[in-house]
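Hi support team,

I submitted a single chain yesterday and got back a structure, but I'm not sure I'm reading the token output correctly. Could someone confirm the output below corresponds to the sequence I sent? I've pasted both exactly as they appear in my results page.

Thanks,
R.
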Amino acid sequence: MNCLIDQVIDSYLRQGQRIETIKKYIWQKYRINIDAKSIKERIKLLRMNYGLR
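Hi R., thanks for writing in. Yes, this is the structure output for that exact sequence:
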């Protein structure tokens, strides 16, 4: 499930969506309540994996 959430976050960030939009989509699609702080931490980890700043 973690990989799925990371993929959703990554794809929506590439589209230029805001964190609140990503949070809302994850809730509607998968019924998982994730806070904005957790999404930001996942974004940091994704950027480290891709070698971005």
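A quick pointer for reading it: The chain has a mean pLDDT of 90. Let us know if anything else looks off.

Best,
Support desk
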